[in-house]
Amino acid sequence: MIAFVQRVGRVGLSICTELGSASFFLSKSVWRKPRSGQKLHLLAHTLFNSGVLSLPIIIVSALFIGMVVGLQGFNILNKFSVTSELGQMVALSVVRELGPVVTALLFAGRAGSALTAEIGLMKATEQLDAMEMMGVDPLGRIMLPRLLGGFISLPLLTIIFCAIAIWGGDLIGVRWLGVDAGAFWSNMQSSVDFRLDVINGIIKSAVFGVVITWMAVYQGASAIPTAEGISHATTRTVVYSSLIVLGLDFVLTAMMMGGW
Amino acid sequence: MPEALIRVENVSFAHNDHVIFDNISLNIEQGKITAIMGPSGTGKTTLLRLLTGQLKPSSGHVYFGKQCITTMSRKELYKTRRKMGMLFQNGALFTHLTAYENVAFPLREHTKLSESMIRDVVLLKLEAVGLRGARDLYPNELSGGMARRVALARAIALDPMLILYDEPFTGQDPILMGVLVKLIKELNDILELTSVIVSHDVPETASIADTIYVLAGGDVVGAGDPQKLVADDNPHVRQFMHGLADGVVPFHYPAPDFMADLLSSEGE
Ligand SMILES: Nc1ncnc2c1ncn2[C@@H]1O[C@H](COP(=O)(O)OP(=O)(O)OP(=O)(O)O)[C@@H](O)[C@H]1O
Ligand SMILES: [Mg+2]
């Protein structure tokens, strides 16, 4: 019993220290300015790496998820003979929840893990030390553009995800199962609120974007500089950021529904 | 007596519990080539990291000119480091950039030179290390010795006041070794740099160094010009300078008695 309590205490403490040093790391990186001429160039580079390169997986998953939601929704709504509401059902579930959360989870797996591995390897091969020795601050040069990149690219990816998933629902519902196209789109139009649904979804994804890249960059920079250390750090990035995304999603949804 | 560019005063340092330096002091003189020698694992790389402020001593101070590296702010430290070039033991080239871009990196970060001037400087530095033809290769396409020479070109790209070389000769063939020795000497004399060389290669280093410090067991055991050290009769210094296998310098990392270790029950 005591051993159990000790273990819980130890795990709790280590989570707290980890969170503390991660927060410290974040606050340090945010205040570093890369040189003005380079900002755009560096940002474009990370937007390409974490945003554009994640597009294929986002598009394919969005299409299939939209089609599955369309199919499931049609079967349920059919029982109540209200298949004309399919458009509303697909759009609301995708825009409010599936879009931001699934995109964030895919982003963590695709871009987050790549970031951790990249930075971990730069640390292991002393590239970060070399940069410091040249009087260039790795926090400003490497970490900050990546954090900004996540903040910008994840909301954009989420919008693309939602659009394609809704198109997938249309493909199944309207083209295949024969729901009336007019009803599908007009019901969607009248039930989706721009402020409450679309904007809130984008706010969520911006928060997720920062949290995922923060985790990824922090894990990379604090990885033990060995092959094993980097592989552990990569795993931790994906696991922690997925859990944090799911937990935060609940908190943010509760706050938004509570009218904050 | 020339002025000391770097003064290390009563510095102690430990990695975790492993004491690397116990209260050492030494001076690096302006415009001279100072060599730091000593058996593998005595802390030569650690000393370079203390000199550049990458590691902080647990007690004592390191001065660069009149400034104290140990207590200066991060911003000042970064500014001071622009006056230093460092050749890392394994090169530490940026793997996502070509040899050319690696050498151009500090220039792009710290100067406002035009693209054509950057090109001239980079080609000049690469020519000096004999790798102008390899400018478009990525670090994974370079051999170990070539990577180290590109790293050297990068370290001198900004024409620093002080260059720290961590094992510049390792992995170079005898011809290149001669070229590098000459290059280091020329850089030092023509550009009036101050150089610090960490090396195991006694004859090469002794041929260009003005002062040599021999480290062993966390202490400076010998200091002076090469002739003095070759004649020194401190057992550590003599063993190291003449490459003798038998002597006071242990070949092994501190460990319990070998027989006792073999017979111990730890692995069961
Ligand atoms: N990050 C670290 N954590 C713990 N111990 C370390 C660390 N880095 C180095 N050491 C220890 O510090 C000692 C000195 O290391 P250092 O790299 O300075 O040696 P060196 O003199 O440069 O050796 P070599 O000539 O082989 O490069 C070694 O005994 C090593 O075990
Ligand atoms: Mg070393």
Oligomer: heterodimer
User: Helix-strand pattern of chain A, N to C?
Assistant: HHHHHHHHH
Q: Which stretches of chain A of 5+ consecutive residues score pLDDT under 50?
A: none
Helix vs. strand class of chain B: alpha/beta
Strand proportion of chain B: 15-25%
Shape of chain A: elongated
Distance between the termini of chain B: 62 Å
What is the β-strand count of chain B? 10
Report the radius of gyration of chain B as a whole number of Å.
20 Å
Quick one: which chains have the greatest interface? A-B, 17 and 21 residues
In total, how many beta strands of chain A?
A: 0
Give the amount of beta strand of chain A, in percent: under 5%
Structure write-up:
The complex is a heterodimer of chains A (260) and B (268). Chain A is an all-alpha fold. Helix content of chain A is 87%, strand content 0%. Chain A contains nine helices and no strands. In chain A, α4 (86-124) runs antiparallel to α6, α4 (86-124) crosses α7 (181-191) and α8 (194-221) packs antiparallel against α9 (227-257). Chain A is elongated. Chain B is of the alpha/beta class and 268 residues long. Helix content of chain B is 36%, strand content 24%. Chain B contains ten helices and ten strands. In chain B, the strands form two sheets. Chain B has a six-stranded mixed β-sheet, with helices on both faces. In chain B, strands 2-1-4-5 form a four-stranded antiparallel β-sheet, covered by helices on one side. The model of chain B has no long low-confidence stretch (mean pLDDT 85). Chains A and B meet through α5 of A and α2 and α3 of B. Adenosine-5'-triphosphate (ATP) binds at residues 15-16, 18, 20, 40-46, 89 of chain B.
What is the gist of this entry?
The complex is a heterodimer of chains A (260) and B (268). Chain A has helices at residues 2-30, 36-51, 55-79, 86-124, 127-133, 138-176, 181-191, 194-221, 227-257.
